[in-house]
């Protein structure tokens, strides 16, 4: 939010192009070693050393490739200064093994307080550094330097919080089992991440850095909300489903219940965000990003559809169906490529946003098929479970539309719009949850009773 006010759309777009390439490569540098350690019923020193060995080979190799390819990549996109950004970002690949493996050890032991400390501390330092560098005229280089500093802080804190496991020396044997899982997991992650990064490369090549900046802000707003709401889900999902399976419990029931709770929170918020995208973007990024608002409004529906089976990849990996997980991602991404490319060529930036919605619908349908045939989650029973969440989202969307009619968001101070939404929408959401007897109702009552007991 702060950097969007300090840098121009062109500067943001230039860095977005570089980071999109690096983000895709970054998914390969782990090669599933962290997922392997999380899924294991028992972790030995030999397994940790082998995970380090495989991660170092892949991550350091990719870092070298990125550094060597920095000039050719900059020439391909025809953007001055991009090569230096690639070189700076390649540093993260050197430290990655000593971040990912400790992170896996923390995740499998549910030490999320330490993980939160690592993420918050590194993010605060990154933000402070990027502001200082921008103020001193470093332009988009500020983002690259600050990101490298963030990685270094994560490296130091990750080793500190796992100091009880004094295993740092890699072993280059016993890596086949890790790589077997890693190929599926890493490629699946790459394909999933590419849905957010490919448009930057597509628009960067066929359009301009300014267009990249506008689209990345619009999509970034939606991704920011989704990530904020789901940040506590992704780290927990794989160890949770793995533990359920290792104990012989019902993975299907656990998946359905968790999906109902997630949808009840995520869908209404994204539905409201689709209506209030303009004032939200003005409040977060400033008036210079108004053109990103229509993109965010459309992309919100992509995020809703995609969040329906947000835990599907982790559930499939947990039950040993990583091959099916990869197949699902490849099918969705293939259709995504076609939809977004045609959308941009025919309708420009908004066409890409509608391509996202099409891929979101594809993701929902394909994920539903794989979850039914590989995990056992029935399509009709799943839809029946989340239908109350859909009703809650529809009611909240309608309330936001009425509010927009009462006080036109485009002509009202974004801060005042935020106050109105904060005053009206939470009671509407809560009342609908209670009236429909949504599964969240029981969770809210538990929280309420705990609060009352402490008074």
3D architecture notes:
- This protein is mainly α and 455 residues long.
- It folds into 2 domains: 1-186, no CATH class; 207-455, no CATH class.
- The protein is built from 22 helices and no strands.
- The model has no long low-confidence stretch (mean pLDDT 85).
Structural class category: mainly alpha
As for the number of domains, it is 2
Helix fraction bin: over 70%
Would you identify the regions where 5 or more consecutive residues have pLDDT less than 50? none
Would you report the number of β strands?
0
Shape type: globular
N-to-C series of helices and strands = HHHHHHHHHHHHHHHHHHHHHH
Terminal CA distance = 38 Å
Beta-strand percentage? under 5%
The average pLDDT value, as a whole number, equals 85
Major β-sheet annotation: none
| Rg, alpha carbons | 22 Å
Helix count, DSSP H or I runs of 4 or more residues: 22
Features:
455 residues, mainly alpha, 2 domains, 22 helices, 82% helix, 0% strand, globular, Poly_Biosynth_Transport
Concise description?
By secondary structure, the protein is mostly helical. It folds into 2 domains: 186 residues, no CATH class; 249 residues, no CATH class. It has 22 helices and no strands.
């Amino acid at each position: 939010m702060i950097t969007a006010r300090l840098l121009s759309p062109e500067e943001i777009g230039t860095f977005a192009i570089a980071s999109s390439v690096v983000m895709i490569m970054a998914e390969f540098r782990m090669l599933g070693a962290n997922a392997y350690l999380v899924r294991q019923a028992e972790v030995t020193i030999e397994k940790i050393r082998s995970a380090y060995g495989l991660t170092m080979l892949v991550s350091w190799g990719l870092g070298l490739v990125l550094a060597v390819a920095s000039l050719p990549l900059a020439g391909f996109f025809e953007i001055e200064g991009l090569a230096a950004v690639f070189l700076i970002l390649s540093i993260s690949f050197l430290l990655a093994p000593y971040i990912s493996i400790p992170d896996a050890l923390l995740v499998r032991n549910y030490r999320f307080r330490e993980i939160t400390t690592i993420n918050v501390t590194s993010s605060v330092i990154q933000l402070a550094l990027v502001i200082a560098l921008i103020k001193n005229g470093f332009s988009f280089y500020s983002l690259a330097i600050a990101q490298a500093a963030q990685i270094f802080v994560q490296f130091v804190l990750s080793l500190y919080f796992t100091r009880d496991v004094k295993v740092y020396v890699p072993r280059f044997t016993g890596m086949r089992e890790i790589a077997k899982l890693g190929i599926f997991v890493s490629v699946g992650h790459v394909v999933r991440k590419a849905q957010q990064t490919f448009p930057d490369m597509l628009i960067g090549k066929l359009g301009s850095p300014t267009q990249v900046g506008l689209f990345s802000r619009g999509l970034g707003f939606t991704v920011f909300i989704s990530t904020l709401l789901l940040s506590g889900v992704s780290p927990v999902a794989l160890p949770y489903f793995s533990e359920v399976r290792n104990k012989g419990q019902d993975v299907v029931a656990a998946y359905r219940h968790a999906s109902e709770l997630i949808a009840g929170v995520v869908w209404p918020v994204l539905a409201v965000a689709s209506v209030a995208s303009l004032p939200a973007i003005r409040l977060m990024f400033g008036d210079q990003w108004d053109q990103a608002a229509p993109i965010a409004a459309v992309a919100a529906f992509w995020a809703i559809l995609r969040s329906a089976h947000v835990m599907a990849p982790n559930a499939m990996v947990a039950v040993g169906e990583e091959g099916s997980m990869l197949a699902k991602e490849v099918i969705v991404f293939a259709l995504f490529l076609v939809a977004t490319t045609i959308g941009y060529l025919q309708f420009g930036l908004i066409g890409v946003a509608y391509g996202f919605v099409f891929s979101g619908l594809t993701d929902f349908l394909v994920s539903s098929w794989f979850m039914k045939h590989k995990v056992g989650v029935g399509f009709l029973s799943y839809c029946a479970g989340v239908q109350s969440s859909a009703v809650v989202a529809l009611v909240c969307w309608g309330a936001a539309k009425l509010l927009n009619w009462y006080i036109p968001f485009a002509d009202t101070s974004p801060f005042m719009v935020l106050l109105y939404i904060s005053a009206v929408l939470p009671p509407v959401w809560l009342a609908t949850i209670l009236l429909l007897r949504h599964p969240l109702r029981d969770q809210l009552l538990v929280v309420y009773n705990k609060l009352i007991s402490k008074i």
